[in-house]
Automatic annotation (TrEMBL):
Full-protein interval shown: 180 to 463 of 463
Domain EAL: 24-278
Highest taxon, organism lineage: Bacteria
Name of the protein in question: Bifunctional diguanylate cyclase/phosphodiesterase
Lineage, opening ranks: Bacteria, Pseudomonadati, Pseudomonadota, Betaproteobacteria, Burkholderiales
Length: 284
């Protein structure tokens, strides 16, 4: 009976695997079409200087306006795009679009802000990555200091000579570098002294419970003070409540990003927010 059952499980598993493989293939094909038909859009989420309450930057976050399935979040297609290599042309589109938009806001008379672009490991390791960044900045006339690349610890962990070269070349160009989801990778902290990193982004998993969980509070405070000592900007991701904002302010965290300050939004809405500003209230 057990044997029979095991065999059945196996069969179900195989069917499941096949179904998944077919589903992935069809997503892959439609991703390819999406690029041609320009179905991707960027939403922009504000990053706030906690002391002044002003918007100092935005993170560009990709969305897929799917003709039948509606607006899709990155979780539904980015890892597939990474697996099949399509993240390379998609990433080039994201970088260009984000730089064009940042420049367009400047030309519209808005105070310059930094636009941050997520960069996957595959993109970062591509031979032409550095050249593409350089050419995109030149083409879009965006000053390099207004571009920040968000990298995960998995990219920085590879102690290859090439990683070091690319990071230093970007820093020499004037492009800013941030560690995304800080504290969630398998990290040795030694990359912090090796690489020219400007910003640490504290992962939202530490931020969500930090006002109720003392361990999370300790971790967040420790990252802030380490960042300060290392002369890096520290930003907390996933800030959703005034209590979290107050905590970060009291800990002298530099910046915050999260639903409390603003959700990811289309470029026009972000421009309006840049003009009106964000009004913030602390809890009593
Ligand atoms: P990430 O870079 O860590 O981006 C932050 C994610 O947290 C975004 O999800 C954002 O919408 C969400 N978020 C922001 N504030 C809050 C908050 O207060 N509460 C909660 N619960 N969530 C918040 P999103 O847009 O779904 O993106 C997910 C991930 O997809 C990103 O994580 C990033 O790793 C990846 N991604 C997004 N756009 C791109 C892209 O253009 N290229 C690449 N390679 N990856 C991207
Ligand atoms: Mg990011
Ligand atoms: Mg993150
Ligand atoms: Mg993340």
């Amino acid at each position: 009976y057990a044997k029979e059952n095991g065999r059945n499980n196996c069969k179900f598993f195989e069917q499941d695997m096949n179904a998944r493989a077919v589903q992935r293939q069809s997503i892959e094909a439609s991703l390819r079409r999406a690029l041609e038909r320009q179905e991707f859009v960027l939403h922009y989420q504000p990053k706030i200087n906690l002391q002044s309450g002003t918007i100092v930057g935005v993170e560009a976050l990709i969305r897929w306006q799917h003709p039948e399935r509606g607006l899709l979040a990155p979780a539904q297609f980015v890892s597939i795009a990474e697996d099949c290599g399509l993240i390379l042309p998609i990433g080039r589109w994201v970088l260009r679009e984000a730089c064009l938009q940042a420049k367009a806001w400047q030309l519209a008379g808005l105070a310059p802000i930094i636009v941050a672009v997520n960069t996957s490991a595959l993109e970062f390791r591509a031979k032409d990555f550095l050249e593409n960044v350089r050419a995109t900045l030149a083409d879009t006339c965006l000053e390099p200091r207004y571009l920040e690349l968000e990298l995960t610890e998995s990219v920085l962990m590879r102690d290859a000579q090439s990683t070091n070269c690319v990071l230093h070349a970007l820093a020499d160009m004037g492009v800013k570098l941030a560690v995304d989801d800080f504290g969630t990778g398998y990290s040795s902290l030694s990359y912090l002294r090796r690489f020219p990193i400007d910003t640490l982004k504290i992962d939202q998993s530490f931020v969500h419970q930090m006002t109720s969980n003392p361990d999370d509070a300790t971790i967040v405070s420790a990252v802030i003070s380490m960042g300060k000592s290392l002369k890096k900007r520290v930003i907390a991701e996933g800030v959703e409540t005034p209590e979290q904002y107050a905590f970060l302010l009291a800990q002298h965290c530099d910046e915050g990003q999260g639903y409390y300050f603003g959700r990811p939004m289309v470029a026009e809405a972000l421009a309006t927010l840049l003009q009106t500003g964000i009004s913030l209230t602390l809890p009593d």
